[in-house]
């Protein structure tokens, strides 16, 4: 299990910082996390995972936290306006007085469809490791460091065998792809790993874990059609003895539309191939996950001891440690791949970190998370752990900030509102 940074909680001093955070200079999610953690920061649930706080007391604290967020002038209007901003927030704390531990949760806002963007990289990363475990069970001598070669599927594509960010040997491996996608949020990594696992198999893995809402229907930042997204490439695994294990190209079943999800049509217009279409963007065939399943996926990785009433991920200890390290690492802490701190500050992929640091009065705190940012949607799931213990508080949320209602114009209020 990856060690978490040791910090000391000082909620009294932190309160002054949290109350002075201007919404125009800090992301809403940082303010939300500051106000959310503040009522909990004095209790043992935040300070260590072996909480002795009864679940009813946690429920009272979470309810007080929700009330505080609704009544605060900087967050109340946005959190209450589920119609315009599609805002939904799920606050959860681990009750370790139960054996096994359970979550106590409160939700704010009415959940509707949100585009999960890069948060699906969490599912693809887990899926890639489960695929390795399946191959190992079949007697194939592969691991997370086995070099991979991806063959082209369509005209104009090329063989992919090199990863310039891998400073060890420049090859593509599952370990480096996971770290690239989770820490730096690289889209190439998610697309190669989706090809490795397969779209249909990845969804089946998530459903087997109890995450029934997960629908990974397409790659990211590639304009493939639905039919093209069914195709998976030939992949060569370069084994240590110099031989190849070949995964042949294949075609997944047709992509099924999202059903039973409210408000799948978003905005008033969309830019598509430089043309403005005067109609909402339809996300019926887009990637999808519920807020609860997004939270539960993070819990399944970093707190497998917590009983969610779901099967969870059967990761090996080594693979779980790989995931926990990638989800908790700051960009500057990563040696391979390496990230320039000037381009990748501490809160690059951890939007809640500034607020947490204000509340906990600490410069180092471990936040195991994944964020998403696309089409005006900002989504995140974060587990917060201090004092060397695994996360005991989880904050999962989404907000939509697109004042002009046009999608794909890259004019969104990420910095000023989200």
Overall description:
- The chain is of the alpha+beta class and about 425 residues long.
- The chain is built from 13 helices and 15 strands.
- It has helices at about 10-20, 30-35, 45, 55-70, 75-80, 80-85, 120-135, 175-185, 185-195, 200-210, 290-300, 315-330, 355-360; strands at about 90-95, 100-110, 150, 230, 235-240, 245, 250, 265, 270, 275, 280, 365-375, 375-385, 395-400, 405.
- Strands 2-1-14-13-12 form a five-stranded antiparallel β-sheet, sandwiched between helices. Strands 3-5-6 form a three-stranded antiparallel β-sheet, covered by helices on one side.
- The longest helix has 18 residues, at about 120-135.
- The chain starts with 10 loop residues before the first helix and ends in an 11-residue tail after the last strand.
